[in-house]
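Predicting holo structure, PBG bound.
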Amino acid sequence: MKFLIHRPRRLRQNARLRALVRETELNAGDFIMPYFVCEGARVKKPVVSMPGVFQMSVDELVKDCRETQKLGIGGVILFGIPAKKDEKASGAYAQDGIVQRAVRELREKVRDIVVVTDVCLCEYMSHGHCGIVSKARGKEFVIENDATLELLAMTAISHARAGADIIAPSDMMDGRVAAIRRALDAEGLTQAPIMSYAAKFASSFYGPFRDAAQSPPQFGDRRSYQMDFANAEEALREVALDIEEGADIVMVKPALGYLDLVWRVKQKFGYPTAVYNVSGEYSMLKAAAKNGWLDGKAVALEMLTGFKRAGADIIVTYWAKDAARWLEE
Ligand code: PBG
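Done. Tokens:
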């Protein structure tokens, strides 16, 4: 055994050699930190199912985003919790809606950070669905795809006008990227990029998010618009459609159980690819770490590196701030 030619362990002997040959390097600049913005002032309310995550009023958001910016994190994504919800999601596209105000404040007070806005209606609808709901014979309810597109387009325009850098539709209606692109262009907002939640699956990992954003559906579920988690070929078709419709960045969501798709999407399309490390994925590790069952920091960094190794250019994660600090150590 003395004359083994191949000894991969030669390059694992010490930290210097390992660093020299490391293939994947995480950077704070790859991360997007999600925020839940609510009404009021000096509000910073913990989300029980997501330790370390808060609902914040705009003033607190500005303070927090300053820290996020200093840590070198690439961007933030905003979700709004409006004071009132109704059946046409008025709060989603109101000029003085919660997200629109938050974007304007961030634009003015925090420089050098990419501000992404999630475009969806579920947080603003009294029934908690991502589209307009109507009754249909023989069915519990239907989601009106094409009528919903108009509201999504209005929402996107209002975000871009407020100064959002990237518009991120997460509703999963058919044709929404095209509808939003057309609407933005018609308003002269041709420079606003679209990051589409292209392959978004109907996942039980979104549970804690729906607490945070106060957006669980009041009846039924989202399986008539979000994808069946058993389908990969269909996910690739969804991504192809969104690219054809004008998406600039495509996303796969959730992350952990879906890295086959991150890989395939990156390989097949070569587009800037984002992955969303969702609420439930965050909460389960937080819980295990709190119990002393897992090393939270080590596992989080291992997971995040895995996303990047699989092909993600952008990682939307609630770990963004923690991870950025750990990377500085
Ligand atoms: C809005 C939206 C959701 C998430 C992002 N945008 C919830 C959902 O679709 O039910 C989930 C994010 C997370 O779980 O962290 N439609």
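The chain has one domain: 25-328.
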